[in-house]
Amino acid sequence: MNMKSVLVVVSLLLSVAIGLVLGRGGVARDPGEKRPLIGLSLDTLKEERWQADADLFKKRCEELGADVLVQAANGDDTRQINDVQALISRNVDVIVIVPHDGAAMAKGVQAAHEAGIPVIAYDRLIKNCDLDIYLSFDNVKVGRLQAQWILDHLPTPGKGRIVLANGSKTDNNAFLFHQGAMEVFQPAIDRGEVKIVWEDWTEDWKLENAKKIVNAAISKLGPNGFDAVLAAADGVAAGAIQALHEEGLAGKVLVTGQDAELVACQKIVAGTQSMTIYKPLKKLATKAADVAVKMAGGNPIIATQSVNNGLIDVPAILGDIFAVDKTNLRETVIADGFQSEKAVYGSAPQN
Asked: Which of 144, 165, 191, 341 is most buried, judging by how many CB atoms fall within 10 Å of its CB?
């Protein structure tokens, strides 16, 4: 183990030790209490992606002998802060947070720490606070893979006009996806081979807001004004595809995605969505549950990576990701059991 890893482990042990000394909610703990209690605060449970994460996380915690309290804020920052306060009042051992707004949730981390409770940021980073640990995927790589797929599959490979339908500005990951995409696009832009012809951010990741972005691009540029839409996630892609369908362009313009949602995989088979990013959620949710239960028991956590959140270098565990299209759906999403062959292909051709 290198020195950085040692420091990370020491930092996490100190954080957990504080919680054990103070007990749940800052009061002495009953020595007879054995079963850990984990709080899970979610931005939303309205999307397939987050329903899957919550179910996987809860199942793994229960396998490890822990109970889970789940709260969902439905995209409301004030409600999510109140959810965290409610979890604190329930004397949880650890709080795992998927923030709606990574900056606003710093208040939630502070409140938890004042009660002696460590906090795990799950998938989305919480900014400008002394966060205990961050579990996610390599989100810059998400953007890189999306952009590279577009460059490789343009009608004239490496040359074309791109619409960027970015994620929500309240989600730090959206900026990381954009960063990764521009790392790939910028050299081609500098050579005059690629042009970003339209760009906007999808408020709250909502399908209808993504549709408005692509509708605006079509109105401004015309139906033949762009070759691809880099949509930051599958929900954004769905909105983009709706707009393209209305103009008879669905399947004629490249559209990226992320999360390998069932509908997105079906659209890839149908040809209206070009690709998605598969993130092995089972591995991430399982790892997060393992970490949460270990932290609740005062056991050491090893995190060999770190991500700066504006205040500190947060210890991080980052999973790998995969670009998925028609050529490798079976070898990735289906082989891992993330989606079933029957659900994805249905009556579609099997080759």
From this structure: 165
Q: What is the mean pLDDT of the chain?
A: 90
Average pLDDT in the 129-142 region? Answer: 96
Q: Identify the burial level of 345 via C-beta atoms within 10 angstroms of its C-beta, where 0-12 means exposed, 13-18 middle and 19 or more buried.
A: middle
Cβ distance 85 to 61 under 8 Å? no
Instruction: Give me the DSSP letters along 280-343.
Output: -HHHHHHHHHHHHHHHHTT------EEEE-SSSEEEEEEE--EEE-TTTTIIIIITTTSS-HHH
d(CA 273, CA 258): 11
| Domains (range + CATH), the chain | 3-131+280-320 (3.40.50.2300), 139-278+323-345 (3.40.50.2300)
Sign of the Cα torsion 132, 319, 339, 67 reads: negative
Q: Which helix (H) or strand (E) holds 210?
A: helix 207-221
* pLDDT, tens only, 304-351: 999 999 999 999 999 999 999 999 999 999 999 999 999 999 855 444
Residue 205 contacts by C-beta under 8 Å, 6 or more apart in sequence? 47, 167, 168, 171, 232, 233, 235, 236
Lowest mean pLDDT among 5-19, 212-226, 233-247, 285-299: 5-19
For position 7, what pLDDT does the model report?
A: 39
Tell me the residue type at 238: A
pLDDT attached to residue 32:
55
- Quick check: 176 and 143 in contact, CB under 8 A? yes
Our measurement of the distance from residue 228's CA atom to the centroid of its chain's CA atoms, rounded to an integer in Å, reads: 23
Calpha distance 346→146 (Å, rounded): 26
Burial readout 283-295 (b: 16 or more C-beta within 10 A, e: otherwise)? ebbbbbbbbbbbb
Which residue has better confidence, 271 or 28?
A: 271
Per DSSP bridges, beta strands 322-324 and 194-201 are: unpaired
Q: Which sign, positive or negative, has the C-alpha torsion 142, 143, 147, 150?
A: positive
